[in-house]
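Why should sequence recovery work at all? Because a backbone constrains its sequence more than one might expect. Tight turns favour small or flexible residues, buried strands favour hydrophobic ones, and helices have their own preferences. The token representation captures these environments compactly. In the example below, the structure is given first.
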């Protein structure tokens, strides 16, 4: 029996030059877009998947209410109104490359990618 599986490898880096050509596309960030939230069993609410093992988060949920995090908020270093390489990795050095969001997976059939796909960068192949 032959079973075919579709395997998708996320693109995690792009050259600085390519990023500059289409910042809106490559600057995808769920934190800036308010595109999703990760709800943990202990009530911690996060948006950025690269912060899963850290103390940073946007809020806590308990007693049927949300309390927004003031001091360890994961948005603190984000330039919320700019398209940038991944904010949580930008201080690392990658030579002529810039890091993209761990969640940068444009071949997914989701609303956010269908919306961003309308402005394809040079060299984008379907």
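From this structural description, the recovered sequence reads:
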């Amino acid at each position: 029996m032959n079973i075919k599986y579709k395997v998708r490898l996320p693109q995690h880096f792009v050259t600085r030059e390519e990023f500059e050509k289409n910042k809106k596309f490559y600057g995808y960030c769920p934190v800036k877009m308010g595109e999703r939230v990760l709800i943990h069993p202990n009530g911690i609410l996060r948006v950025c998947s690269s912060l899963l093992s850290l103390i940073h988060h946007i809020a806590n949920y308990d007693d049927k209410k949300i309390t927004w995090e003031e001091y360890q908020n994961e948005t603190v270093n984000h330039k919320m109104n700019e398209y940038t390489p991944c904010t949580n990795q930008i201080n690392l050095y990658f030579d002529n490359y810039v890091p993209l969001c761990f969640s940068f997976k444009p071949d997914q059939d989701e609303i956010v990618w269908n919306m961003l796909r309308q402005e394809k960068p040079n060299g984008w192949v379907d």
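A few observations help interpret the result. Residues 27 and 84 are 5 Å apart (CA to CA).
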